[in-house]
Design goal:
This protein has 775 residues and is α/β, with parallel strands linked by helices. The chain contains 32 helices and 33 strands. The longest helix has 22 residues. The radius of gyration is 25 Å and the shape is globular. The protein binds ligand MGD (2 copies) and molybdenum atom. One ligand MGD binds next to helix 24 and strand 17. Its cofactor is Mo-bis(molybdopterin guanine dinucleotide); [4Fe-4S] cluster.
Length: 775
C-alpha cells in the first residue's frame, strides 16, 4: 500500500539533531529493509580504513577516529543497498511498465535490488530477461549505426568509482564524443566553473585538519544535519572549542541548532547536546549575492576607517598585494554600492549584514562552506566569485584553519570530474589522453544535462546511457525530459535499484543491474578495491564486504569494459584486461593525470592521499597567475523580478529541497522530522503572512504553476500549505515532485545549472485529492 496518500502530520521537532531520534530511525530502517543480521557488521565498517567508503555523501572520513563514524543517513544509504528485497525477472513478468508508472518513487524504491539484465518488450509492455552478451551486442549495434557519435549521450551519477569513470570516459572519447552530462551539472557546477576564475581550481581549499583550528565557520545554503550528518561532528568540536558558527539560510534549519553526538555516550545518556550555530541569518531565496556584497562593503568601510584613524588594517593588505589582481576596482564598486539595494535584494536588514561583517572581521581563521542554496540560482557563479573574493579580502585562503569548503553531494562526484567526466575537457587533458592511448580525442565540447534533454527533444540525441542515477526524475521540466527520453532509439541504465528512468524509456531499452559499493567485487578470482575522492580531495580505496545481491550482477567497471569491447573491439585498448584488474586502470590514470603519481602505492596508506589543490598553497592556476577579484552588479532584471512585475506580491519564489528521508530521487520514507513533517511529502513551507495574503488557511491544499515566458504550462498539483519560519515571498517544497515546475530554460549563467532554488510560481486553491499523483 502506498502510504503517501495517508494524511500525515505536522509537529514541530524539539529534540537536538541526531541523538536518540537518529538511533530509533536507524532501527526502523533496518527492519523495513529486512537487512540480514550478518550485514549489520558492514554498517560499522563504513568509512573505516579496511572497509568501504559510505555511498551516502562526499563528506570526508576521520581515519583516526577511535569510534566508528555513526551517521543515520549513511546507515540508510547502506541499508538501502543491503536490503534483502529483490526485483527479479518474475517481478517484471507480473507488471507492465504502464502499471509500474502508476507507483510513486517511494514505492518503486521499496521493491529492492535488481537481479538480472532486462530488455524492454514492446509487445507485452514488460521487461524480460536478456543475456549479458546480447545486451552488450545491442548497445554496440545502436552506437555503431549512429551517423555521428554526438548523437549519443553518456550520463554519470556521482557514485561511480574513479576506475569505472575513467574507463567510461576513455571508451566514450574513443567512440568519438564529449557528451558527458552528469549530476554535477545540476549540483556544484557553479562552484566548478566559478572558482577557477578567482582562485584557479574548482575545488575546496580546506581539509578536516582546518576544521580543527578554524575560529569562524559560516555555512551558506546547506543542511548538514540531513545531507552531510558527519559534518555535525566537526561543527560540534568547533563549537565546544568556542568557534563561532553562523548559518545563512532562509530556513532556520533545526538540525543546525543543537546536536547530540552518537559518538559520545555521555552526551547520549545524559540527554545532553551541543549548540551548533549561534547566529542565523535568513536571506530571501537567492539573496546571498547581495548579502555577501554587503558584508564585503562593510569590510571595505571598516578598512577605510582604519586607514583614516591610523589603526590596524582590516584587509590583509600583504595578501592582496602579493597574491591578487583587481582589488581596487572591486573595492570602488563596493564603496559605490547602495545599502538600500543590498538590503532589499538580500532581504536582510543592514544591522544584520554588518553583524555578519563583524563576525567575519573578528575571525582570524574563517571557513566558508556552501551547498545547493548557493549553487542552484541564476547568478550562482557570480555568488561563488564573490564568496571567494570575500575570503581573499582577509587572506582566508591558503591559511591553516581557513578556506573555501564547497560541500559536494554524491560520494564520488568530485573524483568523477577529476578523472575525466567533463563535457568541457581541457586541451591539456585531451592531449595527454590521446598521447597515452594513441588516438585523437574529440575536441568539440559536449552536451551537459540541460542540453542533452534539449537535444533529445529536437531529435539529435538518439542513444542514452546512464551510469547510475535517475535522469528522468533528477532533471528539470519532468514532462519534457520524459518526451526526450521516449524519443530515443535506445536507453540503457546501469543501476542497482528500480527507478522511474527505467520506465520512461526509448524505443528499445535495457536495465543492467550492477554491484553496489558495499558488495564484494571479485574479478579473475581476486577481490577488487575501487577508489574515490571526497569533498576535500582525499583519494582513498574502498572494499565491498557484503555478498552481492544476485549471482547475475556485474560490476560497473566490467559492464563498461564489455560495452567498450563490443562497440570498439580490442585494437587500441584491451578493455577486458582492465576490467580483470582495477590496479591496471589506476596505472592508466596515473599516466594521464597529474597528482596520481604512485597511485597504487599511495592508496595503501590508511586514509589514502591528498590530491594537490594549488590554491591551498597560494599558487594560482588562473589566466592571470594571480587570484582575481571580479566585479559583479546585483542582478535586478531576472525572471523572478519580471514575473513579480506581472503578478505582484502573489508571485512566490519556490526552492526545491531534500527531506530527511530521501537520497535525491530515492525516497527512503515519508518523514522530514527536523522540519516537523511526518508521513507525507506533498507539502509547501510558507510564511503565515503569505498564507493570509493569498486568502488561504494553514493546511489548505494548493496546486502550483510556473510563471515562465515560453508559453508552456507547468504544474504540480496537490500540496498542503505548512506555515513556516521562511521569508515572505519565498516557499519551499521537496524535489523530485516539484521538478515538473522547473523550466528547462531556467538555468544559471555560465554553469547552465537548473535554478532549482528559485522558480517563479503561483499558488492555486485545490481540493483535497482523492488519489495522489505518482510523481
Ligand atoms: N541524506 C541525504 N544526503 C545527501 C543527499 C540526499 O538527498 N539525502 N543528497 C546529496 C547531494 S547530491 C547533495 S548535492 C547534497 C545536498 O545538500 P544541501 O546542499 O544541503 O542541499 P538541499 O537539501 O537541497 O538544501 C539546501 C539548503 O539550502 C537552503 N537554501 C535554499 N535556497 C537558498 C538560498 O537562496 N540561500 C541560502 N543561503 N540557502 C538556501 C535550504 O533551506 C536548505 O537548507 O547532499 C548530499 N547528501
Ligand atoms: N528540483 C531539484 N532537482 C534536483 C536537485 C534539487 O535540489 N532540486 N538536486 C540535483 C542534484 S544536487 C543532484 S546530484 C541530482 C541527482 O541526480 P542523480 O544522481 O541522477 O539521482 P539519484 O537520485 O542520486 O540516483 C539514484 C539512483 O541511482 C542508482 N544507484 C544507486 N547506487 C548506485 C550504484 O552504486 N551504482 C549504480 N550504477 N547506480 C546506483 C539507483 O538506481 C537509484 O535509483 O539531482 C538534481 N536535481
Ligand atoms: Mo548533488
Amino acid at each position: 500500500m502506498d502510504k503517501s496518500n495517508a494524511p500525515g502530520k505536522i509537529e514541530p521537532y524539539h529534540h537536538p539533531a541526531a541523538g536518540w531520534g537518529a538511533l530509533k530511525y536507524v532501527a526502523i530502517n533496518l527492519i523495513k529493509e529486512r537487512v540480514a543480521g550478518g550485514s549489520y557488521r558492514t554498517l560499522f565498517k563504513q568509512n573505516q580504513p579496511d572497509g568501504f567508503d559510505c555511498p551516502g555523501c562526499a563528506w570526508p572520513d576521520r581515519q583516526h577516529a577511535s569510534t566508528f563514524e555513526f551517521c543515520e543517513n549513511g546507515v540508510k544509504a547502506v541499508a538501502a543497498e543491503a536490503t534483502t528485497k529483490r526485483v527479479t525477472p518474475e517481478f517484471f513478468a507480473e507488471h507492465t511498465v504502464d502499471e509500474l508508472m502508476a507507483q510513486t518513487d517511494y514505492e518503486l524504491e521499496q521493491h529492492g535490488r535488481l537481479t538480472d539484465p532486462m530488455v524492454y518488450d514492446p509487445l507485452t509492455d514488460k521487461y524480460r530477461p536478456i543475456d549479458w552478451d546480447q545486451a552488450f551486442a545491442l548497445i554496440a549495434q545502436h552506437l555503431n549505426k549512429l551517423p555521428s557519435p554526438n548523437q549519443a549521450a553518456f550520463y554519470t551519477s556521482g557514485r561511480a568509482s574513479n576506475e569505472a569513470a575513467f574507463l567510461y570516459q576513455l571508451f566514450v572519447r574513443m567512440f568519438g564524443t564529449n557528451n558527458f552530462p552528469d549530476c554535477s551539472n545540476m549540483c556544484h557546477e557553479a562552484t566548478s566553473r566559478g572558482l577557477p576564475k578567482t582562485v584557479g581550481i574548482g575545488k575546496g581549499t580546506v581539509t578536516l585538519d582546518d576544521f580543527e583550528i578554524a575560529d569562524t565557520i559560516i555555512i551558506f545554503g546547506q543542511n548538514p544535519a540531513t545531507n552531510h550528518p558527519r559534518m555535525l561532528g566537526e561543527l560540534r568540536e568547533a563549537s565546544r572549542r568556542g568557534a563561532t558558527i553562523v548559518s545563512v539560510n532562509p530556513l532556520r534549519e533545526r538540525g543546525l541548532e543543537r546536536f547530540t553526538s552518537p559518538q559520545h555516550p555521555l552526551e547520549m545518556i545524559t540527554m545532553g547536546s551541543t549548540k551548533i550555530a549561534s547566529t542565523f541569518i535568513q536571506p530571501k531565496l537567492g539573496g546571498d549575492f547581495a548579502l555577501i556584497k554587503g558584508v564585503a562593503k562593510y569590510i571595505v568601510e571598516l578598512d577605510d576607517e582604519a586607514v583614516a584613524n591610523g589603526t590596524e588594517r582590516v584587509l590583509d593588505v600583504a595578501f592582496i598585494r602579493e597574491h591578487t589582481l583587481g582589488f581596487e576596482a572591486f573595492a570602488d564598486d563596493l564603496r559605490q554600492e547602495s545599502w538600500a539595494l543590498l538590503e532589499s535584494e538580500s532581504g536582510v536588514p543592514r544591522e544584520e549584514i554588518e553583524n555578519l561583517g563583524r563576525i567575519y572581521a573578528n575571525g582570524k581563521r574563517v571557513i566558508a562552506t556552501w551547498g545547493m542554496g548557493i549553487t542552484q540560482h541564476k547568478h550562482s557563479v557570480q555568488t561563488v566569485h564573490l564568496l571567494s573574493n570575500l575570503l581573499m579580502m582577509r587572506g582566508n585562503i591558503g591559511r591553516d584553519g581557513a578556506g573555501l569548503c564547497p560541500v559536494r553531494g554524491h560520494s564520488n562526484v568530485q573524483g568523477n570530474r577529476t578523472v575525466g567526466i567533463e563535457e568541457k575537457p581541457s586541451e591539456a587533458f585531451l592531449d595527454r589522453l590521446g598521447e597515452v592511448f594513441d588516438f585523437a580525442p574529440p575536441r568539440e565540447h559536449g552536451l551537459d544535462v540541460v542540453e542533452t534533454v534539449e537535444h533529445m527533444i529536437e531529435g539529435h540525441v538518439k542513444v542514452f546511457l546512464g551510469l547510475g542515477g535517475n535522469f528522468a526524475m533528477a532533471t528539470p521540466d519532468t514532462l519534457r525530459t520524459f518526451d526526450g527520453l521516449r524519443s530515443c532509439d535506445l536507453t540503457v541504465h546501469i543501476t542497482t535499484k528500480l527507478n522511474r528512468s527505467h520506465l520512461v524509456h526509448g524505443k528499445e531499452a535495457l536495465i543492467l543491474p550492477t554491484l553496489g559499493r558495499t558488495e564484494i567485487d571479485v574479478q579473475a578470482g581476486v577481490a577488487q578495491g575501487i577508489t574515490v575522492e571526497d569533498s576535500m580531495s582525499m583519494v582513498h580505496i574502498s572494499y565491498g564486504m557484503n555478498k552481492p545481491a544476485s549471482k547475475n550482477l556485474m560490476s560497473e567497471t566490467a559492464i563498461l569494459a564489455n560495452i567498450a569491447h563490443a562497440t570498439l573491439g580490442d585494437d587500441k585498448v584491451r578493455w577486458l584486461d582492465y576490467a580483470s584488474d582495477y590496479a591496471k586502470i589506476r596505472d592508466a590514470i596515473e599516466q594521464v593525470l597529474p597528482g596520481f603519481e604512485q597511485y597504487n602505492e599511495r592508496i595503501k596508506h590508511p586514509g589514502g592521499f591528498h590530491l594537490r589543490v594549488a590554491s591551498r598553497e597560494r599558487e594560482w592556476e588562473t589566466d592571470t597567475g594571480k587570484a582575481n577579484f571580479i566585479v559583479h552588479a546585483v542582478q535586478t532584471d531576472t525572471p523572478i523580478v519580471r514575473a513579480k512585475q506581472r503578478h505582484g506580491e502573489r508571485l512566490m519564489t519556490l526552492m526545491t529541497t531534500r527531506s530527511h528521508d530521501q537520497y535525491n530521487t530515492t525516497i527512503y520514507a515519508l518523514d522530514d522530522r527536523y522540519r516537523g513533517v511526518f508521513g507525507q511529502r506533498r507539502v509547501v513551507f510558507i510564511n503565515p503572512a503569505d498564507i493570509a495574503m493569498l486568502g488561504f488557511k494553514n493546511g489548505d491544499w494548493v496546486d502550483m504553476s510556473t510563471v515562465w515566458e515560453d508559453g508552456i504550462e507547468r504544474r504540480a498539483n496537490y500540496f498542503r500549505l505548512v506555515e513556516y519560519d521562511i521569508p515572505r515571498g519565498c516557499i519551499g517544497a521537496y524535489y523530485p515532485e516539484t521538478n515538473p515546475l522547473v523550466p528547462l530554460g531556467s538555468v544559471g549563467d555560465v554553469c547552465n545549472t537548473p535554478t532549482s532554488k528559485s522558480i517563479p510560481v503561483l499558488l492555486h486553491r485545490s481540493s483535497q485529492p482523492v488519489a495522489m499523483p505518482a510523481f
